[in-house]
Amino acid sequence: MTDRALVVVRAGALTTVQDRGRPGHAHLGVPRSGALDAPAAALGNRLVGNPPEAALLETTLNGCAVRPRSTVTVAVTGAPCRVTVQGRPAAWGAPVRVPAGTVLDVGPAVSGVRSYVAVAGGVAVDPVLGSRSTDLLSGLGPAPLTNGTVLPLGRTRVAPARVDVAPQPAPPAELVLRITLGPRDDWFTPEAVRLFTSDAYRVSAASNRIGLRTEGPALDRAVAGELASEGMVLGAVQVPPDGRPVVFLADHPTTGGYPVIGVVRPSDLPSAAQAAPGTPVRFVAVRRR
To answer: Boundaries of each Carboxyltransferase domain copy (predicted)?
Structure first.
């Protein structure tokens, strides 16, 4: 039994292992996956001295709790939350030393949705297709964490950063997503395109790692026929039969048969990862580059 491991005490609503994902396999039907809020995950790894590709934990809404078998350095980033070590308050957004056998508790998100728990050495589960990420759609990678799960850790190579608190962007009070219209915006009426780029939507509670679902005005189709399944990209805004836009996130399918009215700029997607249910959403059309 290795002492370089974490034991999951409280798995939370949904806690998964994530890294930078497994790009380049869409032709096999495998999504990219990876941390939804990539900047927050990268910051966590920097704070504990990990390389950018190191795997870490992504929590959802109500956090998680883990017990290391040996003394480790951790950093919690992403959605702001209460952090404790053996019941005593600890820093969020900064390196924290967690002695062997004590419990690190990452509490519910005060705002936002997803927090990241980086551990010096990284989570060293076996990679699949070059990534340790959990993919909820395909089932690749480690299963979502459950109480009692034991996660092996890699070896520490670099000393943690020396900072008090690292600045991070606040979760959005309003989610503004810049989109390039197309390729199937002509499948919708002119009025539907106007509504899409002018009316306010809200984040649906049915959102997940596969897609951010919205509530708001339904978009009427100009073309009523079926669309042959075609390739989907990260950030594609697909419109299913109910007419409410869905923004595809990291675990999205690689093909789909509903029309894509536009594609969100990649730099706006980390904010989508932290948009809680009920958050207002605006789609803003921008010119093609």
So the answer is: 27-289
pLDDT of residue 101: 98
pTM over 0.85: yes
Per-residue H/E/C for the chain: CCCCEEEEEECCCCCEEECCCCCCCHHHCCCCCCCCCHHHHHHHHHHHCCCCCCCEEECCCCCEEEEECCCEEEEEEECCEEEEECCEEECCCCCEEECCCCCEEEEEECCCCCEEEEECCCECCCCECCECCCCCCCCCCCCCCCCCCEEEECCCCCCCCCCCCCCCCCCCCCEEEEEEECCCHHHECHHHHHHHCCCCEEECCCCCCCEEEEECCCCCECCCCCCCCEECCCCEEECCCCCCCEEECCCCCCEECCCEEEEECHHHHHHHHCCCCCCEEEEEECCCC
CA distance 163 to 63: 23
- With vertex at residue 45, the alpha carbon angle to CA 168 and CA 268, rounded to the nearest 5 degrees, is 45
Summarised one tens digit per residue, pLDDT across range 239-252 is 999 999 999 999 99
**Intervals of the chain under pLDDT 50:** none
Structure tokens at 267: 């730099």
> Which residue, 82, 260, 78, is CA-closest to 166?
78
